[in-house]
Every structure is written in structure tokens, then in C-alpha cells.
Design brief:
Blueprint lengths: L9 E3 L2 E3 L4 E2 L16 H8 L6 E8 L16 H16 L4 E6 L16 E2 L8 E3 L6 E3 L4 E2 L5 H17 L2
Parallel strand pairs: 3-4, 4-5, 6-9
Antiparallel strand pairs: 1-2, 7-8
Helix pairs in contact: 1-2
């Protein structure tokens, strides 16, 4: 099967892509510890792929209570945003375009990842899932979340808004 349009330009909203190859987000678990900060290694990884039409960077948590796996990056503070700036500068230097996937792990969480905070989710139902707390460590069962109160929803929305602003400031 041939894809005659794969390498042709595409306009998506106000973004002009030089081709239709899009890298889907995949968790890399390579952030600097402690702190979950992207490093030069992350910058090199994404820069090597900058020729794709669009890069969608890995799942990046918007709040520590929403961290679902060990070693993943966040975008909750200035240090993490500076790490993402290393990445975006490297990608932009090679003419690439990059989006950041913002996420909250919800019921896929663990007290050991969230600074002791109980994970929050729509309901207090433990996911039938495992996570890892650190590089090279074994997988552990996720903890049971607590149900997020309706009055807490604006706060979670605010976490996404703050993270989006940090991401845009980071390029």
C-alpha cells in the first residue's frame, strides 16, 4: 500500500506541518531525579525526530497527585518548565514543531509517587493496574484513590490551565 500524501504538507488549525508524519506520545521515563525534570537526553531524543510533521511529547503530569509512573516529567514548577525549554529549543533549532501531552493519572496513582497524597479519581475504585516507582524497580499495585469532590473540579481544571501556560512559555 502506498501513501502518496504522507510526505506532503498539511495545515492543522494555524499550524503548517511540512509532512503528515506525527509522532505519538510515548512515556520515556527519563526525567532527572529527584524533581521529574527533562534533561539534555530528552532534548536530544526529541531533536533527533524534529523532521516529523509534529512531535507530541510524552504524558506530562499537571499535579504531583496526578503522577502515575516513576521517572516521568512534570510541568508543575519553573524547574520542570526550564527542562521542557531545553527540549523545545532543541526541536525548534532543527525546524520542528512539538506539542506537550498534559495529563493527570487519576486512579492510576500511588502514594509513593504523589508525595504521600492519596490519588484522586471520579470514584474511589482502585484500578486493576500496576505502576513503577523508580527506574529498574518492580511494578507495584496502584493505590485506591479517593473520590474527587465536585467542589475540587475547578482546582484540577486550574492545574491544567497552569500547566498549559507553563508549556506555552516553555515553547
Amino acid at each position: 500500500t502506498r501513501c502518496p500524501h504522507l510526505l506532503s504538507p498539511l495545515r492543522v488549525g494555524d499550524l503548517d506541518l511540512p509532512n503528515r508524519v506525527i509522532m505519538a506520545p510515548l512515556t520515556r521515563s527519563r526525567s532527572r531525579q529527584p524533581g521529574d525534570v527533562p534533561t539534555e537526553m530528552n532534548a536530544r531524543h526529541y531533536a533527533q525526530r524534529a523532521g516529523m510533521g509534529l512531535l507530541i511529547a510524552e504524558a506530562t503530569y499537571v499535579a504531583l497527585v496526578g503522577k502515575a509512573y516513576g521517572m516521568i516529567p512534570g510541568i508543575t514548577n519553573d524547574e520542570q518548565a526550564s527542562g521542557w525549554r531545553l527540549v523545545t529549543d532543541a526541536v525548534h533549532e532543527r525546524g520542528g514543531r512539538i506539542f506537550l501531552q498534559l495529563f493527570h493519572g487519576g486512579r492510576v496513582g500511588h502514594l509513593g509517587l504523589s508525595g504521600g497524597q492519596t490519588p484522586v479519581a471520579p470514584s474511589a475504585i482502585r484500578a486493576n493496574a500496576k505502576t513503577y516507582l523508580e527506574a529498574g524497580g518492580g511494578k507495584v499495585d496502584v493505590d485506591e484513590p479517593r473520590a474527587l469532590g465536585a467542589d475540587e473540579i475547578p482546582g484540577v481544571i486550574g492545574q491544567f490551565v497552569d500547566a498549559a501556560k507553563r508549556a506555552m512559555d516553555a515553547g
